[in-house]
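Action item from last week, closing it out:
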Amino acid sequence: MMFILKSIFLLFSVFISNLTNAELVNSNIIRDINLKKTFPTDTTRIVLFYNSGEQTAPITEYIFSINSTAHKNLMDISASEIKTGNELLIRKLETQSSISDVDYSVHLNSPLRPENKLSIKIIATFLRHFEPQPKSIKINEDAFYRCLPSSRILSYSKSPSPVSADDNTLTFGPYSRIDQLDTAPISVHFFMEETPSIITDFARSISISHFSGSISLDDYTELLNDGPKLIDYNRVDYYKATIQRSLKNTMNGFNVHVPLDARNIYYTDIIGNVSTSHVSRSEVSDSLLLQLKPRFPVMSGWKFSFNVGYTSSLSNYLKYNPSTKKYSFKAYPYSDPIEMGIKNYKLQITLPEGAYDIEYNPSFGADSVEITTEKGYLGFFGSKKIVFSKKNTSPSEIGPVYVMYKYSNLQLLLKPIIVSMFLFGIYLAFSMLGSYIALVDSVKTTKDVSKSKK
């Protein structure tokens, strides 16, 4: 597939709090853009130098900017010291210096003092950093994109100079004496074999049952082949390319790991059960390998939505803490750490009916957390459901979620008792009705006998 880049080369702006004559200098900046994955990673290494002049106050934060257009697809951003590897606290500023940029603040663990240097690294990961160009192609044609640099470079901008090319690497710079917030457009034309794809919507629903000692899990996935829109599709060209093994820009299948004790496994789409799947023992880990194939090949620009679910033993995920008298449930937000971005992610955990004193501790920064009450099958008072939502993320960046709650074992008897009382009530009602009918028939028979004697 061909790609064309039209991006903005961003240089970071500096903000110094409560200093008037001090100057924080970016003495060296190296920016690496990796497009080998389906979502690009932008790594910037910066050497900060405190050219104080007459000022001696230490510097505690570093401010940099990201273009607002690129920021819409930002998945994750982190900062660390290069020498020690220690993480640096990074946060988005509420007040922005420009409409076209989004400012972030990096808090320095050790204040930078006059005439000292500090090397930091900032890593930004983006969900989608390109768009099809042209917007549509025919079957088996090469796809062009407007994107960032990658392998097999065909052509590229010769400015701002200096620019050098070596195999699959482009080097812009070095540049000196760059003003704050200075930008320069660059374009690159290149080829990439990997099919660009993203998960537009993913929702994992987990239901906990103490009564059956199991969990029910259902994953809804909407997969998008993020290539140009396919036009003039016909089966002749498709089968010809399939036989020749030359079909381009197509997703034919993927693998999902499920627990070894998983049962009642299903794989469905909007039509119904999808039979093009296979379950086997995984050779890599102690789990089952579910090999999924779509009902039809997901070609360039096409979508495919499906559900995968199973039932597993609750003991694999639940522990009881006698000191706090709480249960701790460990939920895995995704089956496999695949290298694919997720535009809209949602994790729903339904607790058993009667759970209370609920706490949760997600290991990822959820955009929102909502607790609702949901009535299910044979539910009388409703079960608590916790919903974690996040935009622009990936499975490799979402860690486990821990939910702690209290639950009385007497709740296990509640449903059987209520059901038994309900059935007994029905039995009693029919018994009383039968007795009443028998009594009416007996009175009627007595009256008929008395009339016949007269």
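Closing note: Residues 73 and 127 are 5 Å apart (CA to CA).
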